Sequence to fold (390 residues):
Amino acid sequence: MTESFRRSGEYENPYQGEQQHAYPRQQPAPSPVNPEWPPPPAQPPVPQAPAQQAAPVQPATVEGSGYGGDGNGGGTATLAADPAFGGPAPAAGRKKRTRGPVALLAAVAIVAAAVGGGTAYAFQQLTGSDTVASSSTSTSVVPSSKKGDVATIAAAVSPSVVEINAASNAGQSTGSGVIITSDGEIVTNNHVVSGASSIKVTTSSGKSYTAKVVGTDSKKDLALIKLENASGLKAATLGNSSGVQVGDTVVAIGSPEGLSGTVTSGIVSALNRDVTVSTDENQGQGQGQGGGSDQWPFSFGGRQFNGDTGSSTTTYKAIQTDASLNPGNSGGALIDAAGNIIGINSAMYSASSQSSSGSSDAGSVGLGFAIPINTVKSDLATLRAGGSDS
Fold:
């Protein structure tokens, strides 16, 4: 028997060479061969789809013979086709190669979808630092599914907009402001707080603070004030006004006529309007009290609106909007569809100033102007150092 085995191993028939290559683990079956088993195939088996495999072998034959039950290639093929094992299936090694990457890719796709939808919003909620929150226009303060929804924008940004009441020897001024740090730095218009002897700020929740002027820049009609003993406030996210386009949806939040937290909406009507306003610190006093003489005066295209701007003026590039603005909106927020601040409202036209009928004609006629937020961001360092007027 041993001699016969050696001779069969040394036999160099090409047929047996191919068989050995196709079945590297298979040992020659002892002689005589069981007549119940068919001879091995003349060529290596060609892999086929599970549906094209031969009819399953009876379960009893899998465990009876050494040929199929010794764990060699032939035995594996028989088990794969056995109905007792769930029908045709690929080999175990091939399962790892095909299913592993598919499962991994599916997991990655699910995670990416979850992260893509929520990262920007979660980041805005979790970064409660005292630094200015700044973003490009691609950042969404509101969930992406709610972009452009006025109610959602108002709910997200209103806590960052305050009412400002400034008193001076010349009178009382009412305006608005935008919180830019959680410890109470607020950007507003210079004409809202210029010459003020005392400043009172009220948040959207009704809490009141006293504030002091940090810096003013009358040439850009900007001012920075700081609340006393404030912390944990919700800072607005400053957007990128260079990405604003005519026709974009905008929302305005402020305190017109002392009605704090008033929300209006509209579109961007024009860009880069040369708006001229007064730098006289007494011009702004009385704003928000009603009447044509109390409107903040400005000029555009050689025409005066809301009164005489006086001899001391400055001109800046403004965003024009048809969102309703009224006295008291000055210093408030102009917001894009994603909830980012793109401008600080500064001037609006009121028909009452051109009419003898008095305040009955007062109100917005869709001509409002805002200082672009990029102008504000570029001026912050100067304002924090005391402003250009110091």
